[in-house]
Design brief:
The protein has 617 residues and is α+β, with helices and mostly antiparallel strands. The protein is built from 20 helices and 22 strands. It starts with a strand and ends with a helix. GO terms for molecular function: ATP binding; ATP hydrolysis activity; ATP-dependent protein folding chaperone; unfolded protein binding.
Length: 617
Protein backbone atom coordinates (compact mmCIF):
# COMPACT_ATOMS: atom_id res chain seq x y z
CA UNK A 1 0.00 0.00 0.00
CA UNK A 2 1.23 3.47 -0.92
CA UNK A 3 0.62 6.37 1.40
CA UNK A 4 1.46 9.99 0.80
CA UNK A 5 0.38 13.60 0.63
CA UNK A 6 -1.33 15.08 -2.37
CA UNK A 7 1.11 17.46 -4.01
CA UNK A 8 -0.44 20.89 -4.13
CA UNK A 9 0.83 24.44 -3.97
CA UNK A 10 -1.12 25.25 -0.82
CA UNK A 11 -2.12 23.18 2.19
CA UNK A 12 -5.52 24.84 2.15
CA UNK A 13 -6.61 23.51 -1.26
CA UNK A 14 -9.43 21.34 0.11
CA UNK A 15 -11.26 24.04 2.07
CA UNK A 16 -11.02 26.20 -1.05
CA UNK A 17 -12.41 23.41 -3.22
CA UNK A 18 -15.21 22.64 -0.79
CA UNK A 19 -16.39 26.21 -0.45
CA UNK A 20 -15.32 28.31 -3.39
CA UNK A 21 -14.33 26.26 -6.44
CA UNK A 22 -17.90 26.03 -7.69
CA UNK A 23 -20.72 28.40 -6.88
CA UNK A 24 -23.27 25.61 -7.18
CA UNK A 25 -22.49 22.28 -5.54
CA UNK A 26 -24.54 20.24 -8.01
CA UNK A 27 -21.79 20.97 -10.58
CA UNK A 28 -19.77 18.04 -9.18
CA UNK A 29 -22.00 15.61 -11.09
CA UNK A 30 -21.31 17.39 -14.35
CA UNK A 31 -17.58 17.29 -13.67
CA UNK A 32 -17.43 13.62 -12.74
CA UNK A 33 -19.66 12.50 -15.59
CA UNK A 34 -17.60 14.67 -17.97
CA UNK A 35 -14.45 12.93 -16.78
CA UNK A 36 -16.14 9.57 -17.41
CA UNK A 37 -17.03 10.70 -20.94
CA UNK A 38 -13.42 11.80 -21.49
CA UNK A 39 -12.19 8.37 -20.43
CA UNK A 40 -14.64 6.70 -22.80
CA UNK A 41 -13.76 8.98 -25.72
CA UNK A 42 -10.08 8.27 -25.14
CA UNK A 43 -10.80 4.55 -25.34
CA UNK A 44 -12.63 5.03 -28.65
CA UNK A 45 -9.68 7.03 -30.01
CA UNK A 46 -7.15 4.39 -28.94
CA UNK A 47 -9.36 1.67 -30.45
CA UNK A 48 -9.60 3.48 -33.79
CA UNK A 49 -5.81 3.66 -33.86
CA UNK A 50 -5.48 -0.07 -33.11
CA UNK A 51 -4.08 0.48 -29.62
CA UNK A 52 -6.90 -1.39 -27.83
CA UNK A 53 -7.50 -5.12 -28.15
CA UNK A 54 -10.90 -6.70 -27.85
CA UNK A 55 -14.48 -5.47 -27.99
CA UNK A 56 -15.36 -1.96 -26.76
CA UNK A 57 -19.09 -1.99 -27.63
CA UNK A 58 -20.28 -1.65 -24.04
CA UNK A 59 -19.31 1.90 -23.12
CA UNK A 60 -22.30 3.02 -21.02
CA UNK A 61 -21.69 5.30 -18.05
CA UNK A 62 -23.78 4.36 -15.01
CA UNK A 63 -24.78 6.47 -12.02
CA UNK A 64 -26.17 4.71 -8.94
CA UNK A 65 -27.27 5.57 -5.40
CA UNK A 66 -26.93 3.39 -2.28
CA UNK A 67 -28.93 5.07 0.47
CA UNK A 68 -27.84 2.58 3.15
CA UNK A 69 -24.14 3.16 2.52
CA UNK A 70 -24.85 6.84 1.69
CA UNK A 71 -22.89 6.57 -1.53
CA UNK A 72 -23.24 7.96 -5.01
CA UNK A 73 -21.22 6.12 -7.66
CA UNK A 74 -20.24 7.15 -11.20
CA UNK A 75 -18.94 4.18 -13.22
CA UNK A 76 -17.43 4.20 -16.69
CA UNK A 77 -15.93 1.59 -19.00
CA UNK A 78 -13.30 3.86 -20.43
CA UNK A 79 -9.52 3.72 -20.44
CA UNK A 80 -9.13 3.41 -16.67
CA UNK A 81 -5.86 4.26 -14.91
CA UNK A 82 -2.75 2.50 -13.72
CA UNK A 83 -1.32 3.22 -10.26
CA UNK A 84 1.23 5.54 -11.91
CA UNK A 85 -1.52 7.44 -13.72
CA UNK A 86 -3.56 7.82 -10.54
CA UNK A 87 -0.50 9.24 -8.85
CA UNK A 88 0.12 11.60 -11.75
CA UNK A 89 -3.41 12.79 -12.52
CA UNK A 90 -5.09 12.63 -9.11
CA UNK A 91 -2.32 13.32 -6.62
CA UNK A 92 -0.95 16.26 -8.58
CA UNK A 93 -3.87 18.68 -8.39
CA UNK A 94 -4.50 20.75 -11.53
CA UNK A 95 -2.36 18.60 -13.84
CA UNK A 96 -4.92 17.72 -16.46
CA UNK A 97 -4.78 14.34 -18.18
CA UNK A 98 -7.08 15.69 -20.84
CA UNK A 99 -4.60 18.44 -21.75
CA UNK A 100 -1.74 15.93 -22.12
CA UNK A 101 -3.90 13.57 -24.17
CA UNK A 102 -5.02 16.33 -26.54
CA UNK A 103 -1.44 17.40 -27.14
CA UNK A 104 -0.26 13.84 -27.84
CA UNK A 105 -3.11 12.92 -30.19
CA UNK A 106 -3.67 16.32 -31.76
CA UNK A 107 -4.76 15.93 -35.37
CA UNK A 108 -4.95 12.14 -35.27
CA UNK A 109 -8.62 11.83 -34.41
CA UNK A 110 -11.58 13.81 -33.18
CA UNK A 111 -11.04 12.98 -29.53
CA UNK A 112 -13.75 15.31 -28.25
CA UNK A 113 -12.25 15.56 -24.80
CA UNK A 114 -14.17 17.77 -22.40
CA UNK A 115 -11.91 18.39 -19.41
CA UNK A 116 -9.24 21.06 -19.49
CA UNK A 117 -8.49 21.94 -15.89
CA UNK A 118 -7.67 18.85 -13.83
CA UNK A 119 -9.71 20.16 -10.91
CA UNK A 120 -13.07 18.69 -11.89
CA UNK A 121 -12.55 15.48 -9.92
CA UNK A 122 -11.92 17.42 -6.70
CA UNK A 123 -15.36 18.98 -6.88
CA UNK A 124 -16.52 15.66 -5.39
CA UNK A 125 -15.13 16.79 -2.02
CA UNK A 126 -17.68 19.60 -1.88
CA UNK A 127 -20.32 17.01 -0.97
CA UNK A 128 -18.34 14.04 0.39
CA UNK A 129 -16.73 12.93 3.64
CA UNK A 130 -14.65 10.45 1.67
CA UNK A 131 -14.03 9.58 -1.98
CA UNK A 132 -12.82 6.30 -3.48
CA UNK A 133 -11.48 5.63 -6.94
CA UNK A 134 -11.49 2.00 -8.09
CA UNK A 135 -9.91 1.79 -11.52
CA UNK A 136 -8.38 -0.65 -13.97
CA UNK A 137 -6.47 0.41 -17.08
CA UNK A 138 -7.37 -0.89 -20.55
CA UNK A 139 -3.69 -1.83 -21.01
CA UNK A 140 -2.98 -5.53 -21.20
CA UNK A 141 -1.88 -7.01 -17.89
CA UNK A 142 -2.80 -3.87 -15.90
CA UNK A 143 -3.65 -4.29 -12.21
CA UNK A 144 -6.69 -2.63 -10.65
CA UNK A 145 -5.99 -0.03 -7.96
CA UNK A 146 -8.00 1.68 -5.25
CA UNK A 147 -7.39 5.28 -4.16
CA UNK A 148 -9.02 6.80 -1.08
CA UNK A 149 -9.00 10.28 0.47
CA UNK A 150 -11.09 11.84 3.24
CA UNK A 151 -10.70 15.45 2.12
CA UNK A 152 -7.38 16.06 3.80
CA UNK A 153 -4.10 16.08 1.87
CA UNK A 154 -3.52 12.47 3.02
CA UNK A 155 -4.45 9.59 0.69
CA UNK A 156 -3.95 5.82 0.31
CA UNK A 157 -3.33 3.95 -2.94
CA UNK A 158 -3.34 0.13 -3.13
CA UNK A 159 -4.00 -2.77 -5.47
CA UNK A 160 -7.53 -4.19 -5.53
CA UNK A 161 -9.79 -6.46 -7.57
CA UNK A 162 -11.82 -5.23 -10.54
CA UNK A 163 -12.98 -7.46 -13.39
CA UNK A 164 -13.30 -5.00 -16.24
CA UNK A 165 -11.51 -1.91 -17.46
CA UNK A 166 -12.79 1.53 -16.44
CA UNK A 167 -13.24 3.65 -13.33
CA UNK A 168 -15.71 3.79 -10.45
CA UNK A 169 -15.84 7.01 -8.44
CA UNK A 170 -17.55 6.35 -5.10
CA UNK A 171 -18.66 9.40 -3.11
CA UNK A 172 -19.56 8.99 0.57
CA UNK A 173 -22.02 11.84 0.78
CA UNK A 174 -21.78 14.06 3.86
CA UNK A 175 -24.78 14.98 6.04
CA UNK A 176 -25.13 18.51 4.68
CA UNK A 177 -25.40 17.14 1.14
CA UNK A 178 -27.97 14.38 1.77
CA UNK A 179 -30.07 15.80 -1.09
CA UNK A 180 -27.65 14.10 -3.49
CA UNK A 181 -28.86 10.70 -2.31
CA UNK A 182 -32.38 11.46 -3.59
CA UNK A 183 -33.31 9.89 -6.92
CA UNK A 184 -35.33 12.84 -8.20
CA UNK A 185 -32.55 15.30 -7.40
CA UNK A 186 -29.94 13.31 -9.30
CA UNK A 187 -32.33 12.74 -12.20
CA UNK A 188 -32.91 16.49 -12.48
CA UNK A 189 -29.17 17.30 -12.43
CA UNK A 190 -28.36 14.66 -15.04
CA UNK A 191 -31.10 15.94 -17.34
CA UNK A 192 -29.81 19.48 -16.90
CA UNK A 193 -26.10 18.91 -17.50
CA UNK A 194 -25.83 15.59 -19.30
CA UNK A 195 -28.86 15.51 -21.60
CA UNK A 196 -26.80 15.56 -24.80
CA UNK A 197 -23.47 13.95 -23.83
CA UNK A 198 -21.95 11.81 -26.63
CA UNK A 199 -21.76 8.64 -24.52
CA UNK A 200 -24.84 6.78 -23.17
CA UNK A 201 -25.54 7.85 -19.55
CA UNK A 202 -27.72 5.52 -17.50
CA UNK A 203 -29.43 6.16 -14.18
CA UNK A 204 -31.91 3.79 -12.57
CA UNK A 205 -31.36 1.52 -15.60
CA UNK A 206 -32.67 4.19 -17.99
CA UNK A 207 -30.66 6.16 -20.53
CA UNK A 208 -31.15 9.86 -19.85
CA UNK A 209 -29.34 11.40 -22.82
CA UNK A 210 -29.55 11.83 -26.58
CA UNK A 211 -26.01 11.11 -27.81
CA UNK A 212 -26.61 12.54 -31.30
CA UNK A 213 -28.55 15.82 -30.90
CA UNK A 214 -29.56 17.69 -34.04
CA UNK A 215 -26.87 20.37 -33.80
CA UNK A 216 -24.10 17.73 -34.13
CA UNK A 217 -25.42 16.64 -37.52
CA UNK A 218 -25.01 18.25 -40.93
CA UNK A 219 -27.90 20.47 -42.06
CA UNK A 220 -28.18 18.39 -45.24
CA UNK A 221 -28.96 15.33 -43.11
CA UNK A 222 -31.83 16.99 -41.24
CA UNK A 223 -35.45 17.52 -42.31
CA UNK A 224 -37.69 20.37 -41.12
CA UNK A 225 -39.42 17.82 -38.89
CA UNK A 226 -36.05 16.91 -37.30
CA UNK A 227 -35.56 20.57 -36.35
CA UNK A 228 -39.11 20.78 -34.98
CA UNK A 229 -38.65 17.58 -32.96
CA UNK A 230 -35.40 18.85 -31.47
CA UNK A 231 -37.10 22.10 -30.47
CA UNK A 232 -39.73 20.06 -28.62
CA UNK A 233 -36.93 18.14 -26.92
CA UNK A 234 -35.44 21.41 -25.69
CA UNK A 235 -38.74 23.15 -24.84
CA UNK A 236 -41.49 20.53 -24.42
CA UNK A 237 -44.30 22.98 -23.70
CA UNK A 238 -43.51 25.71 -26.22
CA UNK A 239 -45.28 26.54 -29.46
CA UNK A 240 -43.54 25.58 -32.69
CA UNK A 241 -40.81 28.09 -33.68
CA UNK A 242 -41.12 30.44 -36.64
CA UNK A 243 -37.90 29.17 -38.23
CA UNK A 244 -34.32 28.31 -37.30
CA UNK A 245 -30.68 28.91 -38.20
CA UNK A 246 -28.13 26.08 -38.15
CA UNK A 247 -24.68 27.32 -37.13
CA UNK A 248 -21.68 25.35 -38.37
CA UNK A 249 -18.23 26.87 -38.59
CA UNK A 250 -14.74 25.45 -38.04
CA UNK A 251 -12.54 28.44 -38.84
CA UNK A 252 -11.26 30.70 -37.29
CA UNK A 253 -13.08 29.05 -34.35
CA UNK A 254 -15.21 25.97 -33.82
CA UNK A 255 -18.92 26.57 -33.37
CA UNK A 256 -22.03 24.52 -33.96
CA UNK A 257 -25.60 25.04 -32.84
CA UNK A 258 -29.18 25.77 -33.80
CA UNK A 259 -30.92 29.05 -33.02
CA UNK A 260 -34.71 29.18 -33.16
CA UNK A 261 -36.92 32.24 -33.59
CA UNK A 262 -39.81 31.65 -31.16
CA UNK A 263 -43.33 32.90 -31.62
CA UNK A 264 -43.71 35.74 -29.12
CA UNK A 265 -47.35 35.82 -28.02
CA UNK A 266 -47.16 38.27 -25.13
CA UNK A 267 -45.14 41.37 -25.90
CA UNK A 268 -44.36 41.89 -22.24
CA UNK A 269 -43.36 38.35 -21.34
CA UNK A 270 -39.98 38.00 -22.98
CA UNK A 271 -37.39 35.66 -21.45
CA UNK A 272 -33.69 35.96 -22.14
CA UNK A 273 -32.41 32.71 -20.67
CA UNK A 274 -33.48 30.28 -23.37
CA UNK A 275 -30.20 29.78 -25.27
CA UNK A 276 -28.12 26.98 -23.81
CA UNK A 277 -24.32 26.98 -24.05
CA UNK A 278 -22.54 23.64 -24.41
CA UNK A 279 -18.91 22.67 -24.64
CA UNK A 280 -18.54 19.39 -26.53
CA UNK A 281 -22.14 18.51 -25.67
CA UNK A 282 -21.72 19.26 -21.95
CA UNK A 283 -24.18 21.87 -20.69
CA UNK A 284 -22.30 24.88 -19.33
CA UNK A 285 -24.78 27.69 -18.76
CA UNK A 286 -27.75 29.60 -20.11
CA UNK A 287 -26.02 32.90 -19.32
CA UNK A 288 -24.71 33.61 -22.81
CA UNK A 289 -24.76 37.41 -22.93
CA UNK A 290 -21.08 37.72 -23.92
CA UNK A 291 -21.28 35.23 -26.78
CA UNK A 292 -24.71 36.01 -28.18
CA UNK A 293 -25.49 39.61 -29.20
CA UNK A 294 -27.85 41.31 -26.76
CA UNK A 295 -30.74 41.48 -29.22
CA UNK A 296 -30.53 37.75 -29.98
CA UNK A 297 -30.86 36.80 -26.33
CA UNK A 298 -34.57 36.60 -27.17
CA UNK A 299 -33.88 33.57 -29.35
CA UNK A 300 -34.05 29.95 -28.24
CA UNK A 301 -31.69 27.09 -28.99
CA UNK A 302 -28.20 25.70 -28.47
CA UNK A 303 -24.65 26.90 -29.07
CA UNK A 304 -21.74 24.49 -28.72
CA UNK A 305 -18.11 25.53 -28.91
CA UNK A 306 -14.92 24.07 -27.44
CA UNK A 307 -13.19 27.38 -28.22
CA UNK A 308 -15.11 29.51 -25.75
CA UNK A 309 -12.74 30.19 -22.82
CA UNK A 310 -14.22 29.31 -19.46
CA UNK A 311 -12.83 29.63 -15.97
CA UNK A 312 -12.31 26.69 -13.66
CA UNK A 313 -16.04 26.30 -12.94
CA UNK A 314 -16.92 26.41 -16.66
CA UNK A 315 -19.72 28.80 -15.67
CA UNK A 316 -18.40 32.25 -16.56
CA UNK A 317 -16.93 33.56 -19.76
CA UNK A 318 -13.58 35.29 -19.81
CA UNK A 319 -12.58 38.13 -22.10
CA UNK A 320 -11.18 36.67 -25.28
CA UNK A 321 -10.97 37.61 -28.98
CA UNK A 322 -12.82 34.41 -29.93
CA UNK A 323 -15.89 35.51 -28.01
CA UNK A 324 -16.08 38.71 -30.07
CA UNK A 325 -15.59 36.77 -33.29
CA UNK A 326 -18.35 34.33 -32.39
CA UNK A 327 -20.64 37.22 -31.44
CA UNK A 328 -20.04 38.88 -34.84
CA UNK A 329 -20.48 35.62 -36.70
CA UNK A 330 -23.86 34.94 -35.08
CA UNK A 331 -25.03 38.49 -35.89
CA UNK A 332 -24.05 38.09 -39.56
CA UNK A 333 -25.61 34.64 -39.80
CA UNK A 334 -28.94 35.85 -38.39
CA UNK A 335 -28.99 38.95 -40.61
CA UNK A 336 -28.26 36.86 -43.71
CA UNK A 337 -30.99 34.37 -42.84
CA UNK A 338 -33.61 37.10 -42.29
CA UNK A 339 -32.62 38.78 -45.56
CA UNK A 340 -32.87 35.46 -47.38
CA UNK A 341 -36.38 34.75 -46.06
CA UNK A 342 -37.52 38.31 -46.79
CA UNK A 343 -36.36 38.07 -50.40
CA UNK A 344 -37.58 34.53 -51.08
CA UNK A 345 -40.93 34.58 -49.27
CA UNK A 346 -41.95 38.09 -48.26
CA UNK A 347 -45.56 37.07 -47.57
CA UNK A 348 -44.44 34.53 -44.96
CA UNK A 349 -42.00 37.08 -43.54
CA UNK A 350 -44.81 39.62 -43.14
CA UNK A 351 -47.06 37.05 -41.47
CA UNK A 352 -44.34 36.43 -38.87
CA UNK A 353 -43.51 40.12 -38.40
CA UNK A 354 -45.35 40.52 -35.08
CA UNK A 355 -42.74 38.25 -33.50
CA UNK A 356 -39.82 38.95 -35.84
CA UNK A 357 -40.14 42.71 -35.41
CA UNK A 358 -39.05 42.48 -31.77
CA UNK A 359 -35.76 40.82 -32.72
CA UNK A 360 -35.09 43.03 -35.72
CA UNK A 361 -35.81 46.35 -34.00
CA UNK A 362 -33.87 45.34 -30.89
CA UNK A 363 -30.91 44.47 -33.13
CA UNK A 364 -31.12 47.76 -35.04
CA UNK A 365 -31.00 49.65 -31.75
CA UNK A 366 -28.03 47.80 -30.28
CA UNK A 367 -25.87 46.67 -33.21
CA UNK A 368 -24.84 49.02 -36.03
CA UNK A 369 -23.58 46.18 -38.26
CA UNK A 370 -26.94 44.48 -37.99
CA UNK A 371 -28.66 47.83 -38.63
CA UNK A 372 -26.94 48.13 -42.01
CA UNK A 373 -28.45 44.87 -43.23
CA UNK A 374 -31.76 45.19 -41.38
CA UNK A 375 -32.57 48.48 -43.12
CA UNK A 376 -33.48 46.33 -46.14
CA UNK A 377 -35.93 44.01 -44.37
CA UNK A 378 -37.23 45.96 -41.37
CA UNK A 379 -40.95 46.51 -41.90
CA UNK A 380 -43.56 49.08 -40.90
CA UNK A 381 -47.16 47.89 -40.84
CA UNK A 382 -49.90 50.25 -42.00
CA UNK A 383 -52.18 51.20 -39.10
CA UNK A 384 -55.32 49.71 -40.60
CA UNK A 385 -54.68 48.61 -44.18
CA UNK A 386 -52.68 45.47 -43.44
CA UNK A 387 -49.91 46.65 -45.77
CA UNK A 388 -46.18 46.57 -45.00
CA UNK A 389 -43.45 48.99 -46.02
CA UNK A 390 -39.68 48.94 -45.83
CA UNK A 391 -38.17 52.33 -45.05
CA UNK A 392 -37.47 52.94 -48.74
CA UNK A 393 -41.00 51.88 -49.71
CA UNK A 394 -42.53 54.18 -47.10
CA UNK A 395 -40.35 57.01 -48.35
CA UNK A 396 -41.56 56.43 -51.92
CA UNK A 397 -45.22 56.18 -50.88
CA UNK A 398 -45.11 59.46 -48.93
CA UNK A 399 -42.54 61.43 -50.92
CA UNK A 400 -44.87 64.24 -52.00
CA UNK A 401 -46.86 64.73 -48.78
CA UNK A 402 -44.76 63.79 -45.76
CA UNK A 403 -41.71 66.01 -45.85
CA UNK A 404 -41.42 68.83 -43.37
CA UNK A 405 -40.03 72.29 -44.07
CA UNK A 406 -36.50 70.96 -43.32
CA UNK A 407 -36.87 68.29 -45.99
CA UNK A 408 -37.03 65.39 -43.51
CA UNK A 409 -39.32 62.44 -44.04
CA UNK A 410 -42.04 62.52 -41.36
CA UNK A 411 -43.07 59.02 -40.31
CA UNK A 412 -46.51 59.15 -38.71
CA UNK A 413 -47.13 56.36 -36.24
CA UNK A 414 -49.67 55.09 -33.74
CA UNK A 415 -49.04 53.29 -30.49
CA UNK A 416 -52.69 52.28 -30.10
CA UNK A 417 -54.71 51.99 -33.34
CA UNK A 418 -58.00 51.63 -31.46
CA UNK A 419 -57.65 54.55 -29.04
CA UNK A 420 -56.03 56.79 -31.65
CA UNK A 421 -58.43 55.80 -34.45
CA UNK A 422 -59.96 59.28 -34.94
CA UNK A 423 -56.47 60.76 -35.37
CA UNK A 424 -55.53 58.01 -37.83
CA UNK A 425 -58.64 58.57 -39.93
CA UNK A 426 -58.05 62.33 -39.98
CA UNK A 427 -54.48 61.73 -41.20
CA UNK A 428 -55.64 59.31 -43.88
CA UNK A 429 -58.06 61.94 -45.23
CA UNK A 430 -55.03 64.10 -45.83
CA UNK A 431 -53.39 61.26 -47.78
CA UNK A 432 -50.89 60.51 -45.00
CA UNK A 433 -49.67 56.98 -44.22
CA UNK A 434 -49.76 55.99 -40.53
CA UNK A 435 -47.86 52.91 -39.32
CA UNK A 436 -48.08 50.87 -36.12
CA UNK A 437 -45.27 51.15 -33.58
CA UNK A 438 -46.81 49.55 -30.52
CA UNK A 439 -44.40 46.93 -29.16
CA UNK A 440 -42.27 47.01 -26.03
CA UNK A 441 -39.16 48.06 -28.00
CA UNK A 442 -40.75 50.73 -30.21
CA UNK A 443 -40.22 53.73 -27.92
CA UNK A 444 -36.47 53.04 -27.85
CA UNK A 445 -36.52 52.16 -31.56
CA UNK A 446 -38.02 55.55 -32.49
CA UNK A 447 -35.51 57.52 -30.42
CA UNK A 448 -32.54 55.55 -31.77
CA UNK A 449 -33.57 55.59 -35.41
CA UNK A 450 -34.05 59.37 -35.38
CA UNK A 451 -30.35 59.58 -34.50
CA UNK A 452 -29.23 56.88 -36.95
CA UNK A 453 -31.52 57.91 -39.81
CA UNK A 454 -30.75 61.63 -39.70
CA UNK A 455 -33.24 62.46 -42.46
CA UNK A 456 -36.24 60.89 -40.70
CA UNK A 457 -38.49 62.32 -37.99
CA UNK A 458 -41.09 60.24 -36.13
CA UNK A 459 -44.34 61.96 -35.09
CA UNK A 460 -47.16 60.21 -33.28
CA UNK A 461 -50.43 60.74 -35.09
CA UNK A 462 -52.02 62.42 -32.05
CA UNK A 463 -49.06 64.72 -31.37
CA UNK A 464 -50.69 67.66 -33.13
CA UNK A 465 -53.70 68.53 -35.23
CA UNK A 466 -53.56 66.88 -38.64
CA UNK A 467 -52.80 70.15 -40.42
CA UNK A 468 -49.68 70.55 -38.30
CA UNK A 469 -48.40 66.95 -38.27
CA UNK A 470 -46.24 67.66 -41.29
CA UNK A 471 -44.74 71.04 -40.41
CA UNK A 472 -44.55 72.94 -43.67
CA UNK A 473 -44.69 76.37 -42.08
CA UNK A 474 -48.24 76.96 -43.36
CA UNK A 475 -50.78 78.81 -41.20
CA UNK A 476 -54.55 78.88 -41.65
CA UNK A 477 -56.62 81.61 -39.99
CA UNK A 478 -59.95 80.93 -38.30
CA UNK A 479 -63.10 82.26 -39.99
CA UNK A 480 -64.19 83.61 -36.60
CA UNK A 481 -63.61 87.25 -35.74
CA UNK A 482 -60.79 88.07 -33.35
CA UNK A 483 -63.34 88.81 -30.61
CA UNK A 484 -65.10 85.45 -31.11
CA UNK A 485 -61.78 83.64 -31.09
CA UNK A 486 -60.87 85.25 -27.75
CA UNK A 487 -64.31 84.44 -26.31
CA UNK A 488 -64.01 80.82 -27.42
CA UNK A 489 -60.48 80.54 -26.06
CA UNK A 490 -61.64 81.88 -22.67
CA UNK A 491 -64.55 79.42 -22.59
CA UNK A 492 -62.10 76.50 -22.97
CA UNK A 493 -59.81 77.67 -20.20
CA UNK A 494 -59.69 74.66 -17.85
CA UNK A 495 -58.25 74.14 -14.38
CA UNK A 496 -57.63 70.40 -14.05
CA UNK A 497 -55.29 68.90 -11.42
CA UNK A 498 -52.07 67.35 -12.87
CA UNK A 499 -52.81 68.75 -16.34
CA UNK A 500 -51.27 71.78 -17.99
CA UNK A 501 -53.78 72.76 -20.69
CA UNK A 502 -52.97 75.12 -23.55
CA UNK A 503 -55.84 76.33 -25.77
CA UNK A 504 -55.57 77.50 -29.37
CA UNK A 505 -58.30 78.40 -31.89
CA UNK A 506 -57.62 77.49 -35.52
CA UNK A 507 -59.57 77.44 -38.74
CA UNK A 508 -59.79 73.79 -39.75
CA UNK A 509 -62.10 72.08 -42.21
CA UNK A 510 -65.75 71.87 -41.17
CA UNK A 511 -65.66 68.06 -41.07
CA UNK A 512 -62.79 68.08 -38.58
CA UNK A 513 -63.71 67.46 -34.94
CA UNK A 514 -64.75 70.57 -32.95
CA UNK A 515 -61.95 70.05 -30.38
CA UNK A 516 -58.77 68.00 -30.70
CA UNK A 517 -56.54 67.16 -27.74
CA UNK A 518 -52.87 66.60 -28.56
CA UNK A 519 -49.80 65.91 -26.47
CA UNK A 520 -46.53 67.46 -27.69
CA UNK A 521 -44.24 64.72 -29.09
CA UNK A 522 -41.19 65.67 -27.03
CA UNK A 523 -42.99 65.96 -23.68
CA UNK A 524 -44.95 62.76 -24.25
CA UNK A 525 -41.76 60.84 -25.04
CA UNK A 526 -40.09 62.16 -21.91
CA UNK A 527 -43.11 61.16 -19.78
CA UNK A 528 -43.17 57.72 -21.38
CA UNK A 529 -39.46 57.31 -20.72
CA UNK A 530 -39.96 58.20 -17.06
CA UNK A 531 -42.87 55.76 -16.79
CA UNK A 532 -40.65 52.99 -18.18
CA UNK A 533 -37.91 53.65 -15.66
CA UNK A 534 -35.72 55.96 -17.73
CA UNK A 535 -33.34 58.04 -15.66
CA UNK A 536 -31.78 61.47 -16.18
CA UNK A 537 -33.95 64.06 -17.89
CA UNK A 538 -36.72 61.48 -18.23
CA UNK A 539 -37.13 61.46 -14.44
CA UNK A 540 -37.23 65.27 -14.37
CA UNK A 541 -40.00 65.44 -16.98
CA UNK A 542 -41.82 62.58 -15.29
CA UNK A 543 -42.55 64.81 -12.31
CA UNK A 544 -44.06 67.58 -14.41
CA UNK A 545 -47.81 67.85 -15.13
CA UNK A 546 -49.14 66.29 -18.33
CA UNK A 547 -48.91 68.74 -21.23
CA UNK A 548 -51.97 68.87 -23.48
CA UNK A 549 -53.04 71.26 -26.20
CA UNK A 550 -56.73 71.75 -26.98
CA UNK A 551 -57.09 72.90 -30.58
CA UNK A 552 -60.53 74.41 -31.07
CA UNK A 553 -61.75 74.17 -34.66
CA UNK A 554 -63.34 77.63 -35.08
CA UNK A 555 -64.86 76.61 -38.41
CA UNK A 556 -67.00 73.85 -36.91
CA UNK A 557 -70.75 74.74 -37.08
CA UNK A 558 -71.30 73.88 -33.42
CA UNK A 559 -69.54 77.07 -32.30
CA UNK A 560 -71.96 79.36 -34.11
CA UNK A 561 -74.67 77.98 -31.81
CA UNK A 562 -72.49 78.02 -28.70
CA UNK A 563 -71.42 81.63 -29.21
CA UNK A 564 -75.06 82.69 -29.63
CA UNK A 565 -76.26 80.74 -26.59
CA UNK A 566 -77.65 83.15 -24.01
CA UNK A 567 -77.88 80.60 -21.18
CA UNK A 568 -74.37 80.84 -19.72
CA UNK A 569 -74.74 77.65 -17.65
CA UNK A 570 -75.76 75.65 -20.72
CA UNK A 571 -72.98 77.26 -22.75
CA UNK A 572 -70.35 76.31 -20.16
CA UNK A 573 -71.61 72.71 -19.96
CA UNK A 574 -71.52 72.28 -23.75
CA UNK A 575 -68.00 73.69 -23.98
CA UNK A 576 -66.76 71.58 -21.06
CA UNK A 577 -68.23 68.41 -22.57
CA UNK A 578 -66.51 69.06 -25.90
CA UNK A 579 -63.21 69.58 -24.06
CA UNK A 580 -63.72 66.44 -21.94
CA UNK A 581 -64.45 64.34 -25.04
CA UNK A 582 -61.15 65.49 -26.53
CA UNK A 583 -59.24 64.73 -23.29
CA UNK A 584 -60.93 61.33 -23.11
CA UNK A 585 -59.48 60.45 -26.53
CA UNK A 586 -56.00 60.89 -25.03
CA UNK A 587 -56.79 58.96 -21.85
CA UNK A 588 -56.33 62.12 -19.81
CA UNK A 589 -59.79 62.27 -18.22
CA UNK A 590 -59.62 60.43 -14.90
CA UNK A 591 -61.05 60.33 -11.38
CA UNK A 592 -63.45 63.11 -10.44
CA UNK A 593 -63.12 64.76 -13.85
CA UNK A 594 -64.35 61.58 -15.55
CA UNK A 595 -67.23 61.19 -13.07
CA UNK A 596 -68.26 64.81 -13.58
CA UNK A 597 -68.21 64.32 -17.36
CA UNK A 598 -70.52 61.28 -17.13
CA UNK A 599 -72.95 63.03 -14.77
CA UNK A 600 -72.95 66.18 -16.88
CA UNK A 601 -73.61 64.18 -20.06
CA UNK A 602 -76.58 62.43 -18.47
CA UNK A 603 -77.93 65.74 -17.18
CA UNK A 604 -77.65 67.36 -20.62
CA UNK A 605 -79.39 64.40 -22.25
CA UNK A 606 -82.22 64.64 -19.72
CA UNK A 607 -82.49 68.40 -20.39
CA UNK A 608 -82.82 67.77 -24.12
CA UNK A 609 -85.48 65.15 -23.51
CA UNK A 610 -87.51 67.58 -21.35
CA UNK A 611 -87.23 70.28 -24.01
CA UNK A 612 -88.47 67.84 -26.61
CA UNK A 613 -91.51 66.93 -24.50
CA UNK A 614 -92.39 70.61 -23.91
CA UNK A 615 -92.15 71.32 -27.64
CA UNK A 616 -94.38 68.36 -28.45
CA UNK A 617 -96.99 69.50 -25.91
Amino acid sequence: MQKGSIRVQTENIFPIIKKFLYSDHEIFIRELVSNAVDATQKLKTYSSLGEVKGDIDNIDINISIDKEKKTLTISDKGVGMTAEEVDKYINQVAFSGAEEFLEKYKGKNEANIIGHFGLGFYSSFMVSDKVEIITKSYQEGAKAVRWECDGSPEYTLEQTEKESRGTDIVLYINEESAEFLETERIQHILEKFCKFLPVPIKFEDKQINNINPAWTKKPADLTPQDYQDFYKELYPFSEAPLFWIHLNVDYPFNLTGILYFPKVKQRFEIQKDKIQLYSNQVFVTDEVKDIVPEFLMLLHGVIDSPDIPLNVSRSYLQGDPNVKKINSYITKKVADKLDEIFKSDRKSFEEKWESLGLFVKYGMITDDKFLEKANKFNLFEDADAGKFYTLDEYRTATETLQKNKEGKLVMLYTTDPVQQNSYIQAAKKKGFVVVKLETIVDAAFINNMEMKWNDVQFVRVDADITDNLIDKGDHVDSVLSKDDQLKLKDMFHLEIPELHVTVEVKGLSTDTLPVIATRPEFMRRMKDMAMNGGGGMGSFYGNLPEEVTLTVNGNHPVYQKILQEENKDKQEKEVRNLADLALLSQGLLKGNELTNFINRSVEMMEGKEKSKIILEV
